[in-house]
Amino acid sequence: MPCNDGVRFTSSPIKIRSLSPPPSLLDFPSTSRGPTSPLAGTAHLLAQFIESFKHREREHWLGPKSPLLSSLSLSLARTRKLPPLCSASLSLSQPDGTAQPDPGYKENPASSPVESVQSEFEARKGQSVSRHDEERVLISEVLVRNKDGEELERKDLEMEALQALKACRPNSALTVREVQEDVHRIIDSGYFCSCMPVAVDTRDGIRLVFQVEPNQEFHGLVCEGANVLPSKFLEDAFRDGYGKVVNIRRLDEVINSINGWYMERGLFGLVSDVEILSGGNLKMHISEAEVNNISIRFLDRKTGEPTSGKTKAETILRQLTTKKGQVYSMLQGKRDVETVLTMGIMEDVSIIPQPVGDTGNVDLVMNVVERKSGGFSAGGGISSDGITSGPLRGLIGSFAYSHRNVFGRNQKLNISLERGQIDSIFRANYTDPWIEGDDKRTSRTIMVQNSRTPGSHVHDQPNSGSLTIGRFTAGVEFSRPIRPKWSSTAGLIFLRSGARDDKGTPVIKDFFNSPLTASGNTQDDSLLAKLEMVYTGSGDRGSSMFAFNMEQGIPVLPEWLFFNRVNARARKGIEIGPAQIVLSLSGGHVVGNFSPHEAFAIGGTNSVRGYEEGAVGSGRSHVVGSGEVSFHMLGPVDGALFADYGSDLGSGPTVPGDPAGARVKPGSGYGYGFGIRVDSPLGPLRLEYAFNDRKAGRFHFGVGHRN
């Protein structure tokens, strides 16, 4: 191509915005009346082509803006002006420095070049497209240089820019769109803060030079506002980039990982500002929404409108783990909602976070709907021993009064009376679920109980009426959580027990002349120091469970009993396909002087099925193991196969009077069978049929899961 000294190209930086679609050639004025010389026509087309880049600011790496509680911005906002991320323009100039206008273009002094192009595009809508709108520009050479037109010091960055090009190749004819897309590709590589295409006329043709400005090398990080984000997380995220040119795409990945860290933990936090300082230092600000205030709002059960509540606000607030000044966590808020619901006095609970002006903090409003505090109730049921002999044996009726929210402090009062054919029990409990002033969530229960239960578990009376064991207990217990899923209980309980015949007369010996009390009196008295630790999984039938219980008799008076009893039980559930396997094991031992009727009774619905209650044996020691496979059958009905084994470990004769030996109990035995489970409002209903090792069969019926 001949040299044309009368025409030269200059460049000027213009921001490019990536949010608008790239313009087509229809966006530009017609070039059918261009300059007379071919080079002038080509230069004129390039000038119009580059004009399309004006006012298109590059914002892709910053990401879209989205609100956080209508106050926190999810976008990155730069606090100072940085070099434009992407810029490109070409202008055609005469040797005297004045721009050569398009002969077919009439300048409107009141509008910008882009507005003029847009207005002309709107005016030409519906008209035919001229051939110059489809015209391509032949490029003989493509180079990458720095913003001063010199070679880049780092060849690896030059290669990154060249590899990003897709359409711009030597000896190729390019359109407006193709050059613009390649400019975007260079910026999208992440290594450059600006890119400006410059056309240079040479003897061999048009040389297209992409003048780029690389980002600075990363030499340090200043992070502000990250109160809960671990410093090690930031160190690991930026470690690989130290000493290297900042890559905007990699920086965007790091920002997403930081925001993801907050999101995974339900925390209200995000990167709100990033700035590249001189010297290659990166300044990052993280906005974390702290809790400014927490308030309780009571809602009416019927209308949903705000109303006054019976529960004291401090009773609810002390249940919350979310406190003022903490970064708000949605997961922690969810747990707080569940905790308030477990108080048993709320029908519905929700937390509404609200922004506090422009501070970036939040106020939490907890909406609560109170349940009815309590009242009287009556009903019927089945004793914990179930039904194993006779259609009515084990059936009970009940009457109760309960109040869940005494004094508005979630304190609970329960008074109940249960009466059956043989069983009867009166209970009165007063529980403060969280003692005021205690920071360990310790609860206190004051209880009084008077019960009468069958004595046939240990001392059955063949053909001579029945025995009942009367127990009066009164005491206080303290419980508290010690670890997640672990709780402990300690208490002091007074126990008075004795036996009566079917006429209600106190007796001290049974049909086989075995003693019924340890003291030789009609009643045994003891003061028990109790300690219990319990681990519970999810609480479902197949979840893991472990419990350890120890009772120590304290002989306050000489005739009071002195003994130590330990008992432990464990359960483990395993799912195999559609079936669920539940394995359970329990055992215990008693040392010292204890009432014979308090011996461990083995056999029955909650022990070894296939035997009556206590028919396997009774001893100072015991161990019972059980395995059960359950599977779904139809609707609320499940099927089950089971096997049980129990033994007194040879301790039967050590019980005062050897009641098991007198009744020729085997001391050990097993049972197996099948049954069904039906979900009901009362809990799982269990109907089972079991065979024991003596080939005898027996039905068992119970409510709830096995103890």
Summarize the structure.
The chain has 10 helices and 34 strands. α3 crosses α4.
Written description of the protein model:
- The chain is mainly beta.
- The chain has ten helices and 34 strands.
- It has a 17-stranded antiparallel β-sheet that branches. The protein has a four-stranded mixed β-sheet with strand order 6-5-8-7.
- Helix 3 (155-164) crosses helix 4 (176-188).
- The longest helix is centred in the middle third of the chain and has 17 residues, at 248-264.
- The radius of gyration is 43 Å and the shape is elongated.
- It starts with 7 loop residues before the first strand and ends with a strand.
What composes the largest sheet? Answer: 17 strands, antiparallel
Estimated helix fraction? 10-25%
CA distance, first residue to last residue: 98 Å
Q: Categorize the overall geometry.
A: elongated
Mean pLDDT: 81
Class per helix and strand makeup: mainly beta
Count up the helices: 10
Radius of gyration: 43 Å
- Number of distinct beta strands: 34
Strand content: 35-45%
Low-confidence region ranges: 1-133, 385-391
